[in-house]
Amino acid sequence: MSKDSQIKGLTTINKHWGDLKKSCKDTKKEIAPLVGQENDKNSFNIKRLEEDITLFIQEMRKREFFQYKCGSSSALDKLDGVFGELKVFEDKIEDYGFNAKQFGNPDQINKAERDIDTIKVTVENMKALWDHINICQNKFQEFYNYKWVET
């Protein structure tokens, strides 16, 4: 390949590169309204998710496992079920968080993530409490069954 053909090839490539950059700018202007709509839609979905999580927290506080009369085995079973319910929220957080990151708003999903983390801590604490209650009840039952004085 001669030097002249190389220069001609590079010139052609440079011209195509310039055309491509111009085309990208034009395309960016064309799709800007659509990107804005999708960004707004994702922001709306995140706000609605935050509201759903807040409602879930309020409803969760009314559940049986917050009452002593529930009993340890029932409470522990119900607490395990909460993690399945949280999976739905976590999937949405992952989807909306990815979109928020793509639109340049990665912090937009932080509140929802913190709320889910708080719920997990609450559930883990409740499980630890019910485990402790279960141990205490078993120990008390042992003491009740123990023969203290021989007659």
Describe the structure.
This protein has 151 residues and is mainly alpha-helical. It has one domain (34-145). The chain contains 3 helices and no strands. It has helices spanning 3-60, 72-102, 110-145. The radius of gyration is 30 Å and the shape is elongated.
Question: What does the average pLDDT come to?
Answer: 90
Oligomer type: single chain
Helicity range of the residues?
Answer: over 70%
As a percent range, the share of strand residues is under 5%
Counting DSSP H or I runs of 4 or more residues, the number of helices is 3
Largest sheet: none
* Overall body shape: elongated
Write the element-wise H/E pattern from the N-terminal end onward.
Answer: HHH
Distance between the termini: 114 Å
User: Based on DSSP secondary structure assignment, what is the total number of beta strands?
Assistant: 0
Uncertain spans: none
Give the helix/strand layout:
Layout: H1 3-60, H2 72-102, H3 110-145
What descriptive keywords fit this protein?
83% helix; elongated; 3 helices; mainly alpha; 151 residues
Summarize, please.
The protein is mainly α and 151 residues long. Helix content is 83%, strand content 0%. The mean pLDDT is 90.
